[in-house]
Amino acid sequence: MSDRSDTVVVDSLTAGYPGVTALEDVSLSLEPGRVTALLGANGSGKSTLFSALLGLAPVASGRVRLFGRPPAEARRRNQVSFVPQHEQIDSTFPITVEQVVMMGRYPHTGFLRIPRAKDRSAVDQALEQTQLTEYRRRAIGELSGGQRKRTFVARALAQGAPLMLLDEPFAGVDRSSEALITTVLHNLRSQGSTVLISTHHLEGVQQLADQVILLHRRVLASGPPTEVLTEENLASAFEAQLGGTNA
User: Fold this and answer.
1) What is the DSSP letter of 143?
2) Co-location of 52 and 75 in the same domain
């Protein structure tokens, strides 16, 4: 695998937490300009892999490179954005949609975090793409689940990183928000960005992703959806849950 041609390179990665080996000898690579679905049951190691890609998970062996660099360095260079499954923002705190999306510009605004014209323009575009312009002054706690998820996608869009990671972006959202997020991700792909989505939902994967990686502690299969999503592969990935562990 070549760091030069691939956005993400994971080579023989074993990782986890004290007493838990969530990933074992995982190798994969992501080419630029593709939407990839990381598919697996709860406890299959998807979240641990995302943590490793962000430089946050203890790595027992192997290596992870984003754009040829260690994850922490890629994050400092604003090369990766992340949409978590559960956002830590307090929904009772009086912060508006526009303010949340502006957080995506923090890597560009310097220590004082004073937005410039191009930062405000990036926020405007992100709000428009996620159909949230009319909600920009609304408190985040007043939004529906789908609108809130779109807000965090907009924040990542405003950041402008060439790699976007999304952890279970369709969990708890309505159909219209799911369709809109899918369109946004496909637009990113057409602009040359790389998108990796963690999910355990099979529905819609063939329309969503160019590539599927099937994970169950190891990579069970990788390739186009039509080749990976076979009954045999899916049975191997989903018939045994890892004892309820949310790895």
Assistant:
1) S
2) yes
185 token code pair: 């991700």
CATH classification of the domain holding 149: 3.40.50.300
- What is the rounded CA–CA span in Å between residue 146 and residue 149? 5
Domain that holds residue 14: 1-29+46-79
Residue with tokens 């994050």: 75
Q: Using CA atoms, how far apart are residues 195 and 209, in angstroms rounded to an integer?
A: 9
Give 95-119 pLDDT, tens digit per residue: 999 999 999 999 888 778 889 999 9
Kindly report the pTM of this predicted structure: 0.90
Q: Can you tell me the distance from the alpha carbon of 36 to that of 164, in angstroms, rounded to the nearest whole number?
A: 11
| Contacts (Cβ under 8 Å, ≥6 apart) of 236 | 214, 216, 220
Are both 114 and 54 inside the same structural domain?
A: no
Taking the C-alpha atoms of residue 160 and residue 238, their distance in angstroms, rounded to an integer, is 35
67 and 6 in a common domain: yes
pLDDT tens readout for residues 172-199? 888 999 999 999 999 999 999 999 999 8
Maximal CA-CA distance, the chain: 54
Strands 211-216 and 218-223: antiparallel
Assess whether 107 and 140 both reside in one domain: yes
- The pLDDT tens digits of the residues spanning 162-177 come to 999 999 999 888 899 9
User: Distance between CA atoms of 25 and 84, rounded to whole angstroms?
Assistant: 25
